[in-house]
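We were asked to recover a plausible sequence for a given structure. The inputs and outputs are reproduced exactly as logged, with field labels preserved.

PROBLEM: sequence recovery
POSITIONS: 239
GIVEN STRUCTURE:
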């Protein structure tokens, strides 16, 4: 009987003190923190990639629209080359475009020029080429397009003046045309802690100019500026 009791006591001690080699692995709190930081970084990177995809798709749509417009204009110009515009009208349109684009040029080069300035300048250069070829109709058309770009850039700058650039803010190459996916708050800054400026219903039209992390700077149809979370917007289908 005594040997039996000794054996039972020995087995109980072994159960209370398992061998080091059989101990279950314990994940340290430091490993958990590192894993959480890794997951957060991946989510942020995925969010940035989604915004970049939206930006690239908008660029493709914009270029396709411009190409279609240019083709239609060429056809009309071929039929009405002599009557579409005079030399004086083309020269006046180009001068107006140059003045409009001047307002977009940053003072002292401290600020990066808006993308509309680059696009408008290229259009005006093409207008000069057509003017020198005596294609005054084509020159006037391109000058008008340059003025349209200047007007869009002035609208962007007016919106930006109401909200100072934020640290880490990344501008889009061109404005994005978006819709709200549901009822959404537009805030004064890029974060949920900022005060709500106004609220939009689902399907509201927005124009986006830049982003900070997952927050996008926008303006609505009434030109009201603000910031909206990326999860509350989607790309607006091309018309």
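RECOVERED SEQUENCE:
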């Amino acid at each position: 009987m005594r040997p039996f009791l000794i054996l039972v006591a020995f087995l109980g001690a072994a159960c209370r003190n398992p061998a080091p080699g059989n101990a279950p692995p314990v994940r340290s709190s430091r490993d958990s923190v590192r894993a959480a930081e890794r997951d957060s970084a991946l989510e942020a990177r995925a969010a940035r990639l989604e915004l970049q995809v939206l930006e690239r798709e908008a660029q493709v749509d914009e270029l396709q629209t411009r190409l279609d417009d240019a083709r239609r204009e060429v056809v009309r110009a071929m039929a009405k080359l002599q009557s579409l515009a005079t030399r004086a009208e083309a020269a006046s349109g180009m001068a107006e475009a140059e003045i409009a684009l001047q307002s977009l040029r940053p003072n002292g080069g401290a600020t990066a020029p808006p993308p509309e300035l680059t696009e408008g300048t290229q259009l005006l250069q093409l207008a000069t080429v057509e003017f020198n070829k005596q294609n005054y109709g084509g020159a006037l058309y391109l000058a008008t397009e340059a003025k349209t770009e200047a007007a869009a850039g002035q609208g962007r700058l007016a919106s930006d003046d109401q909200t100072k650039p934020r640290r880490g803010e990344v501008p889009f190459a061109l404005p994005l045309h978006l819709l709200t996916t549901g009822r959404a708050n537009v805030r004064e800054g890029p974060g949920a802690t900022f005060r709500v400026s106004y609220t939009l219903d689902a399907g509201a039209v927005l124009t986006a100019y830049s982003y900070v992390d997952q927050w996008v700077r926008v303006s609505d149809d009434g030109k009201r500026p603000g910031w909206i979370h990326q999860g509350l917007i989607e790309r607006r289908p091309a018309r």
